[in-house]
Amino acid sequence: MSFDQDGIKQIDADELKEILQMKEVDTIVIDVREPEEYEASHIPGVPLLPMHSIPLLLDGFDKETEYVFVCRSGNRSQNVAMFMRENGFHQVTNYNGGMLSWDGETTAGPEKHILSTEELASLKRE
């Protein structure tokens, strides 16, 4: 069940699964961990954008799109959501508990790594 923490909406695993299953929803889920963490295990179809890259790619984000951030435990993703809110993005959500609490499908290896503002701007749910 969602709740707010420091002004950021928090969702649990069931809510994230719902978002991922609803193809018509324009919410973009982004993993903000480091590449080695992502390649060890990540949610299929969720792209990687390491936390330290976000300030450099801020122009690629759309203020009208809702973003859900995922990390290992929910702390880094919470910090990313707070940073985004401070920069005028108000449709940001944190997956509380992170991959440590994820009980859904995972995959290993490289999949999608966002490297540029163009890639980020063109990112759409599949």
From TrEMBL:
Keyword Chloroplast applies: no
- Which parts pass through the membrane? none
What the entry lists under CDD domains is as follows: RHOD (cd00158)
- SUPFAM superfamilies this protein is in? Rhodanese/Cell cycle control phosphatase
Q: Which Pfam families match?
A: Rhodanese (PF00581)
What keywords sit in the KW lines? Transferase
Give one GO molecular function term.
transferase activity
InterPro entries in alphabetical order = GlpE_sulfurtransferase, Rhodanese-like_dom, Rhodanese-like_dom_sf
Domain (Rhodanese) ranges: 23-108
* PANTHER family (UniProt xref): FAD-DEPENDENT OXIDOREDUCTASE (PTHR43031), SULFURTRANSFERASE YTWF-RELATED (PTHR43031:SF17)
This chain belongs to which protein, by name? Answer: Rhodanese-related sulfurtransferase
Q: What species does this protein belong to?
A: Evansella caseinilytica
